[in-house]
Every structure is written in C-alpha cells, then in structure tokens.
C-alpha cells in the first residue's frame, strides 16, 4: 500500500514593515512596537526609508507614504485630507493612533488573555487611548492640551518638557559618538546586526529601536497596570460607592476594605449620578491587607490630576501627630494629618471613620 508523501511546509518570509528614516518621533516608534506584539509581525523586518519604490514592496507602511488604507496596511497621517480620529474623540490620529485603532483590541486580548469581544477589552482599549495614546497623537500633530487663548497669559513655574516620553525619544535622535560622514538613504534591519555596524544609518536605526522599546515597554506597563489593578478595582469602587450612604447620610464618605486605585472610577460613577447628589469628600482604606493594619483617610481631589482637595482635613488638625492630634480632634488613635490636609491616618478603622464623620461637619 503506497502512501502519499507528506506535503512540504512552504516557508514564508517575515513581513516587511516600512517607515521613514531620518528624524524619528514617538508615534512611529510606538506604532512599530505595537505591530511587533502581534503574531503576524513577530518576527518581522523593518525597513527605514523614504524611497517609494522600496516602500511599495513592504507588507505594512507606517508614518510615511502619504496614504491611509487599512486594507493595504498603509498607515500614514501626514496627507492634507487626513482627519481620522478615535471614536468619540476630536484629536487627529498619528501613526501610533492609527495602528492602535486597528490593532489595539487584538493586542490587549493577546497580552491579557481576555476575549477580544469582551466588555473588559473595550474598556481597556478606550482607557489606554485616553491615558496614553491620545497624548502621543496630539503631540505629533501639534495639538496643545489647552487652547492658546486660555494659556496666553500664563507663565510656567518650571520647565517640564524634558521629562515627557516624546522628549526622551527626541533625545535619542542625537548621537555624538559618530563623526559626520555621508549616510545611506535607507536601511533594512532585523534588529540583530545593526548595533555592531559603524555605518551612521545603522547607528540611527539602533537608536530608533531603542526609542521603539522605550515607547513599547511604557505602553505594556500601562496595560498591565490597568488590567491587573485598575480594572478589577472598578467593581470594588462601585460596590463601595453604592454603600456610601451607610457611612454618611449624604454619602460623603467612601470606605474600602482593601487598598484600591479608586480615583478614576469614583469620578466616572459620580459623573453618571444625579448632579444634585453630594460628592464624596473622604475615602477611607487600610494601609495594607495585613490584619490590624492602620487606616488612612484621604480627601478627594477636585479632579483626577489636581492637588487641590474638595474638602481638606480640618485646618486645626494639619501637621499634628499622635497624642497631640488625638487631643485636638477628640478622636482616639490618631497617627497624623498631612500639613496640607489631603491625607491623614488612624490606628483603626473606627478611628478613621470618626475622623471622617467629624471632618465632613467642620
């Protein structure tokens, strides 16, 4: 009995990704890293060039070429007619936003093990855009955080532009270790040999890959935090929010049995509640999950990024500690109240609750 020979597996070349050479930015650095998280692009080869004839042979082209066509895997945003935004957003996308728009859910599902069609993936997809990707899109498209009319009369107290991810990526464009020599117009790399190549273009490619890793690992840290901590906390905060009137008749005190990242979720739940309802003023939680842990009382900020509290802890308590604070407040077991009044501590849950009950009425 004869048997047919086993079919030979056809070897396929890894997909070729194209982007421009020369000065690079945070958006294409992140876009390339995001693509390479997907099985389709792992492994893949990167070609950095502006030569249209070379780019035409690429499987996917990012941030160059003057074309946006997802069917053909072309993701540039520099053409005058481009006006694509993320759903329910007004910020024009960069190459990072374009790649994230089309592949973000698949990346999130792959990295977390969640169902791509699940509500959790949808929530994480939107959260990561709001908190990470949109700022990259805006920066690359020259969109300010505030309208110019609102900031024209403001003077910065200090310069903070040098600590942004975009600034750190920009720094990587500079290489003072090589002399000025003629550079080739394009370079193809699979990330393995460029570091040892003294060619200036190879050195530029190596710096680009460093920028890509910087952006990509920052994205993954955000994703991991939102998946493992922020997202699970959503149900915890909702439960506490629904029970807040058990702590205070007007619902101004929120109590958690375990520490949790609560601010984002609290503001979200408050925004969906009736405007006439009282806002939460203080949040109480144990310092750790260890039995007998001390408790914290924290004043809720006026906004997610604000250092101003809705109602700081009483002025008379601020800066005091231990017995002096207990005597002043009339609450046993006090540990401290910060000088600004944004946070305090007590040795027990009941002590923290009593501090909150007195503070809301002062």
How would you explain this protein's 3D organization?
The chain is of the alpha/beta class and about 350 residues long. It has ten helices and eleven strands. The chain has a six-stranded mixed β-sheet. Strands 7-8-9-11-10 form a five-stranded mixed β-sheet. Helix 1 packs parallel to helix 3 (about 95-110), helix 1 (about 25-35) crosses helix 7 and helix 4 (about 120-140) crosses helix 7 (about 200-240). The protein is elongated. Residues about 180-185 have low confidence and may be disordered.
Quick description:
The protein is 38% helix and 11% strand.
Envelope shape: elongated
Largest sheet: 6 strands, mixed
Task: Show unreliable segments.
Answer: 179-185
For the largest sheet, list the strands in their spatial order: 4-5-3-1-2-6
End-to-end separation in angstroms reads 95 Å
Give the tally of β-strands.
Answer: 11
Discrete helix count:
10
Rounded average pLDDT: 91
Task: Annotate the secondary structure layout.
Elements: E1 16-19, H1 26-35, E2 45-48, H2 52-55, E3 60-62, E4 68-69, E5 74-75, H3 95-112, H4 119-140, H5 148-151, H6 165-171, E6 187-189, H7 200-242, E7 253-255, H8 263-271, E8 282-286, E9 295-299, H9 322-329, E10 334-337, E11 343-346, H10 349-360
Parallel strand pairs: 1-2, 1-3, 3-5, 7-8
Antiparallel strand pairs: 2-6, 4-5, 8-9, 9-11, 10-11
Helix pairs in contact: 1-3, 1-7, 3-4, 4-7
